[in-house]
Amino acid sequence: MDYEKSYRIIRFFFDATFLLFHTRSKSGGASSMRKTNGSHISKYIAFMIDFLMMALGCIGVLGNYAHSLYFPESIWLSLVLLYVIGIGFYFYYQKYQKLPQKICVIIFIVLIILLFVLYPIELQYFIHELQAVIEFDYFLNFNELLPLEFYTRDVFYQIIMLLMGLPIIYFIVSLISNKQLSFLKIIGMILLFMFPVFIQHELSFQESYAFIIFICYEFIITIALKHQQKQYPLKIVIILFLCVMSFIASTYLETNPLFQQESSSVLSQIIDWVSRGQGNPLNVFNQTGMSQDIDGSLPSGNIRLDDSLALTVHSEIPFSSYLRAYSLANYSDNEWHEVSENFENSPSLTMYSEWLMANSIPSITSLQITPQKDYDFQFIPYYFIDQYQQHTVYYDSYIEKTDEQFYSVYSYEDDSQMELEEGVFFVPDNFDETYEEYVYQQYLDVPEELDESLTNLLEENDIDSSSTDIPFIVEQVRELLSRQAEYDLNAGTLPSNQDFVEYFLFENHKGSCTHFATAGALLLREMNIPTRFVRGYTMQESDFHNGEAKIPEYRSHAWIEVYESQKGWIPYEMTPSGHIEGISQILDENAQQNQTNTNTNNPTTTQPEDEPVQNETVDTPTTSQSSSYTYVYMFVVIAGIVVFILMYRYLSTHWLKMKTRHMNTNKKVLIYYKTLLKLSPHHFINDSDLKSIAYKAKYSSHVLTHEEWQHFYHLYQQWIIQYDQSLKWYQKLIFRYLKGYK
Question: Transmembrane segments in this chain: where (predicted)?
Fold first, then answer.
């Protein structure tokens, strides 16, 4: 029986019946019209769901690029245009069952021509700056790759974003419309999404959740739905489920550090772990810099230096200061936590500033701090002045982010005209006795398991806890720590069953600023002195050039604040350097050494002296260590590439077999025949046996036998061989090794 002829006859009657029902009267065709309208509604809902997924994919990948690479804010115009282009690609596929490759290439070429014709100077400058960024490993900030005097920079960057986004939106539409090789496309989308992480940029929180919804939806659709275009109710259920789960995760679960701070390269940490036996390859916290939210976690492995830009400070007068982010009160389970109870109208940040202004001759300057990230808190200098109490202090710790200028007491000297006796001072107007009681309630806790060991350590070192001279006691504790441990960014991995402070003081004897600050705070609490753990950045007077200081991420630091009665919270340095200039110099030298030794990911420092550091030395690995590290790096990269190629080759050549493994013979034949139909415009299917078996599988109730399936598969392979022979040499490479047909 000629199945092709039968199919044409059936199709003729179907079309005739369809026209007949559409020309009937309203009374006779009401039921049919309702079915038709229902099918149209289903179709439109399916379109809307696909449009939503396309929007989420565009926001998740391209929106993250715009955020993490610091494009100008007006770049949203090109994102909207890319989304419109994606809709056009989608409808093109719906009409012709293929994506508009030629149209996409033409648009890409036109954009490149526009750049060369309209913006030749800007393009030349942009490429030159980009080469410098890559060569010297600077922080990639697209917003700074053109000088401000180029008035066309916004339009220029619109075209740059269109060039970057066009292949990506094409890829997104391909994943949504064409389910062939969906798993490989999903892997590709994840790699595109993770690109900012690979170059040590942060991911945006909202855009990342949009991408998660998009990629999870596509993954579930690929696995669960065989006829997904007819299953729009299930699509809606999946979307709602993913949205609810994302909302719950973002609200109730701990913040994913991948979205909230600059993430280090996992590959580089694994290499370091393999070559030296040190490090924590899966810990994303061990990198200099600060997360965008309040984070009390402590490093559990080696620390990598990040020389990207963190803050820009504009000040009338250059000065050295800590740039305070927030403080934390309670230490437990190897983490610092906020106060257990808030204090309304807290004078926490201004109390000591008021004391200085009342008891000395202060010098005041104005400054503005511009962070590169969108933090939940505001960085402030010491000693912050809030004369009109405009800023609310949250959790006795920080103020909200603001773009306003700040005023700070940057230096002060004794006022000889006061003629006060030693130990006598004026109490500022903002002193609150109830706040002092609050301080002694919140900032003296020490974990029970550490109480005895810390007390013994103080007694063994003859620390005089009876003295009323708090600066003297603090200095004693700092010297104790400098004898007990050394400052080292390569402290190794914290054992899972060990306490952070106990392991640092009594076993490992080395650590970073967080180790010294945490241990120092708890030791002082053992002597009934209120302390708190503080995070932020260090700033030196020498950082300023023409009224501006650029503070890199490797200047992130931890120190403590000590409360003195009726005065307020006073910052103290706990690292062996002893002061802000010393620790800043150590951090700078570490970063310089890190750039000089490009094969070294985790430079170590020797223990600094108690006096100000002038000639700090850095331990560098030997030549054999560097060579070993280079060989391991090359081996891992080459092995990774080989494994990827082999996996891709296997998946691409076995994809149809894997897809049809659990299908009956009829469905197998139809899947393979559809594959031929996609190639048939370039090589006509003229094998009558091949067509006959395919039509039989589709239109008859007969289930094909195993012998019929084997015969069809043999014909399929012959057709593929003939098609391959008709291709040019470069087309054969794509057909065989990229598409995996042979």
Answer: 44-63, 75-93, 105-127, 155-176, 183-203, 209-225, 232-253, 631-651
